[in-house]
Amino acid sequence: MVFSFRSFVTALAATTLFVSDSVQGRQLKKKEIHAKQVEAARRFQSSAAVRREAAKTLNFSSPAAQKFFVDGKSIPDVDFDVGPSWSGLLPISGDKNETRELFFWFFPPGPQGSTDDLIFWTNGGPGCSSLEGFLQENGPFSWSTGTAHPVPNQFSWTNLSSVLWVEQPVGTGFSQGKPNIKNEDDLAAQLVGFLQQFLLVFPELKGKKLYLTGESYAGTYVPYIANYIYEHPGALDLNLQGMWISDPSLSFDVVQEQIPAVNFVHKYENVFSFNQSFMAELDKLNDKCNYTGYMDKFVTFPPKGPLPLPNGSTRTPKGCDLWDTIFNAALIVNPAFNIYRIFDTFPVLWDVLGFPGSFENEQTPLYFNRTEVKKAIHAPLDVDWKECSDIDVFPHGDGSLPPAFSVLPSVIEKNNRTVIVHGLADFILIAEGTRIVIQNMTWHGQQGFQTPIANDSFLVDGVGALGTTHTERGLTYYEVELSGHMVPQYSPVAAFQIMQYLMGFRDKP
Ligand SMILES: *[C@@H]1O[C@H](CO)[C@@H](O)[C@H](O)[C@H]1NC(C)=O
Ligand SMILES: *[C@@H]1O[C@H](CO)[C@@H](O)[C@H](O)[C@H]1NC(C)=O
Ligand SMILES: *[C@@H]1O[C@H](CO)[C@@H](O)[C@H](O)[C@H]1NC(C)=O
Ligand SMILES: *[C@@H]1O[C@H](CO)[C@@H](O)[C@H](O)[C@H]1NC(C)=O
Ligand SMILES: *[C@@H]1O[C@H](CO)[C@@H](O)[C@H](O)[C@H]1NC(C)=O
Ligand SMILES: *[C@@H]1O[C@H](CO)[C@@H](O)[C@H](O)[C@H]1NC(C)=O
Ligand SMILES: *[C@@H]1O[C@H](CO)[C@@H](O)[C@H](O)[C@H]1NC(C)=O
Ligand SMILES: *[C@@H]1O[C@H](CO)[C@@H](O)[C@H](O)[C@H]1NC(C)=O
Ligand SMILES: *[C@@H]1O[C@H](CO)[C@@H](O)[C@H](O)[C@H]1NC(C)=O
Ligand SMILES: *[C@@H]1O[C@H](CO)[C@@H](O)[C@H](O)[C@H]1NC(C)=O
């Protein structure tokens, strides 16, 4: 038999193919997969540069400030120098008998950040600690869910300017004293009282441009804090410019959770993996509850008039809590189902703050509950720190209206820029619900956005289209693909770019 060279090569190729398919399972070697991931991470990171002249940083040399100084080389489990910072407790008023104090951690700007600006960050809850934001979202180092130890955060907001994380209101985290606030105005008054005390210790920060930022229930806190500052000119020696609210609580649950819930499941059908009879049941309930078709009919650009509430009520109609129905069913097929980021599957990842997904998974002491950590940051040793407080920080509930029905429009009008941001993989608050809120809100004399939000309009440097963005009359709205509830954690590159826009470091969203 004549064995030609050509058929030998063909046979060899077939053999190679056979080997790599059946033995290794893939054409790509593990090393090659790894290299692709490293390259992707590098591209992602190179887009984070602020591109400003290196500025000198800030220093605080008064004896009062010295007391709060944190040595960046002495933070437990952090094996790199995070630079100087200041943290501890300060009272919410100058009263001699004041018992209530809030815990803060302040970082001056990194080498490329601006010394003219100050970012204030708060988490929501109510009663959840801003140290979550610090350690897992936008701080100078991060120890995220499922990771082994802290690493420098390339997307730290300290690369933009000074940042102040505050555990507020009273009753949250390390804060001291008994909560007594009745509504959001009380909350704002106490926070502004704290900021006044803060500026007495750090007077070098007086007059800086201020940006108020927060997520989730802070979508309610932040507009009310801004409103308080605008209504009390001269109370605070800072120059409020704008605000960021992400995955914000702005309206009633029926709007932000119920109306869009079944649409959301349809968008992510393969992620939820519900069986067909349950899908049919959901569609039937959606019809019965008058949620079906709501978006197409009422969320138009421009809107045709005020948007209705289903059955005319701010309460969820009886038998129409579809959000809960979906959550319960999701947990049956996926016990790791995470309302904050729906893509999570089994197993639940460990979290150093004890707050992964929708429930606790503690394998070690909570980071901020460790004595050596408390000592390093001047935190009270006798507080059992928890990410979200067990006590009610509004002892008799929050008496304020949701901000969309009160202060939000006027605050947008007074701010230079306002950004509302929403992660599209968030189920606890759903982006389509935020669209309803925006289209039903009147600011600068017009209701909602007048022209449609275009697909693929949010272009992230170094990435490309990653969602949508739309700007009208001082308000910019962003929807971020692949991001869960905590946008700076789940899409740090997008969050960083959005902050650059908010702060005027870039002209386009
Ligand atoms: C951003 O901050 C991180 C962590 O501090 C740092 O490693 C990085 O170099 C900074 N990047 C810029 C552009 O300042
Ligand atoms: C900041 O101030 C402290 C206290 O006065 C001083 O020891 C330190 O050298 C200063 N750091 C810088 C970077 O200026
Ligand atoms: C402190 O005392 C003053 C009067 O002496 C009182 O008006 C104020 O409510 C007290 N403050 C607190 C926090 O107890
Ligand atoms: C849906 O709308 C119809 C007609 O307006 C109304 O009769 C019905 O009560 C509504 N259903 C619910 C659950 O709100
Ligand atoms: C829209 O706004 C009007 C007027 O403020 C209010 O009556 C109505 O309940 C709102 N609708 C929704 C869906 O929030
Ligand atoms: C719809 O509203 C009416 C009148 O407010 C109320 O009686 C009825 O119970 C509501 N229906 C549902 C399903 O909640
Ligand atoms: C379909 O899903 C529903 C909701 O989780 C469940 O009650 C039902 O048993 C499921 N049916 C099948 C065949 O798995
Ligand atoms: C915090 O630490 C204390 C003792 O050090 C412990 O009793 C408590 O259970 C811890 N809290 C949490 C939430 O782990
Ligand atoms: C205010 O916003 C405008 C654009 O909307 C921008 O050009 C300007 O720099 C901003 N001013 C400040 C003080 O941030
Ligand atoms: C935008 O994308 C959605 C699907 O995500 C699609 O249904 C819709 O038609 C698109 N809109 C336009 C104007 O292309």
How many H/I helices?
Answer: 17
Outline the low-pLDDT stretches.
Answer: 1-23
Major sheet, described briefly?
10 strands, mixed
**Distinct small-molecule ligands in the complex:** 2-acetamido-2-deoxy-beta-D-glucopyranose
**Mean pLDDT over the full residue set:** 92
Q: What is the terminal separation in angstroms?
A: 70 Å
For the largest beta sheet, what order do the strands appear in spatially?
1-2-3-7-4-8-9-10-16-15
- Helix percentage: 25-40%
Alpha-carbon Rg, integer = 25 Å
Q: Could you say which overall geometry the principal axes of the C-alpha atoms support?
A: globular
CATH topology group of the largest domain: Rossmann fold
What is the beta-strand fraction? 15-25%
Total number of beta strands: 16
Instruction: Tell me which oligomeric state these chains represent.
Output: single chain
Domains, number: 2
Q: SS-based structural class?
A: alpha/beta
CATH class of the largest domain: Alpha Beta
Protein name: Carboxypeptidase
Family: Belongs to the peptidase S10 family.
GO molecular function: serine-type carboxypeptidase activity
InterPro entries: AB_hydrolase_fold (IPR029058), Peptidase_S10 (IPR001563), Ser_caboxypep_ser_AS (IPR018202)
